[in-house]
Amino acid sequence: MAQTQLQTNGLKTLKGILTNDNMRISFERILKENAGAFMASIIELYQSDNALQKCDPNMVVIEALKAATLKLPINKQLGFAYIIPYGSTPTFQMGYKGYIQLAQRSGQYRFINADIVYEGEQISYNRINGMLQIDGQPSSETPIGYFAYFQLLNGFEKCVYWSKDKVLRHAQRYSKSFKSSESPWKTNFDAMALKTVLRNIISKYGVMSIEFSEVVAKDFDDAVDAEVAANANRDPISLPAPEPASEPDPVPDTQPERAVQQSMTPADNVDGDDVPDFMT
Q1: CA distances for 124 relative to 25, 121, 151, angstroms
Q2: Is the distance from CB of 134 to CB of 157 less than 8 angstroms?
Q3: Would you state the pLDDT for residue 177?
Q4: Dihedral angle computed from the Cα positions of residues 70, 71, 75 and 79, in that order, rounded to the nearest 10 degrees
Q5: For the chain, percent helix, then strand, then coil, each to nearest 5?
Q6: Fewer CB in 10 Å around end: N or C, the chain?
Q7: Are 201 and 156 in contact (CB under 8 A)?
Q8: Among positive and negative, which fits the CA dihedral 205, 207, 210, 211?
Q9: Number of helical H runs and strand E runs in the chain
Q10: For residue 86, what are the β-bridge partners?
């Protein structure tokens, strides 16, 4: 089927899905008065991405609904969230700005930042207190590493630095999509690297809401699968069947029944620019 015909049929189907009463109500329940603008952005994204047009429009809308649930825009230029087509399968992915946005919403972070370290800049990383110092001026626009930093309202702060080689090794080992020509690792390596160091520092040391922790857990799926595959036993292990345990002789009850009382005690900054209204 010609690309033009594929786009025409897919766009018609996509619009039909979005105008369905149940789907429209779903977006309105999540985004209130901003639902219309978000649904329009889905159509705009679909029209502008030839690779996404090869995906089932139903699946595209479902992945977009995930972004809507987090109140993150799917505009590629903003960098908060993406719908990436892997072959014919669309997949929702968080951008590094999305991680910063969710951290900010928790209300626990005084500062949070991630950035690129360029060739010519000098890195001094204290492994004891986890602090990073960057000196000098860039001599080129060639990235040599990436850092992420946060400070909580209670004063706790943490910083991590990964060289570009370390980020590359991590992506090669843990990302299923790394080898794909459509992978954001190929189209925007720096953004994916910043997301990686942010995810690393927040998941290990940061404060996360339930919403945030669920996103981080899902975003780690590729890493978990790859790590299990790398470390799992290649051959099945045969264990001997346990012998049946012999029953002990009955012990006569010589103690009078006693009532036991139990006491119950009660259990104890993203820049404002480019942030759509529905994210606040």
Answers
A1: 53, 10, 19
A2: no
A3: 74
A4: -60
A5: 45, 20, 35
A6: N
A7: no
A8: negative
A9: 10, 7
A10: 89
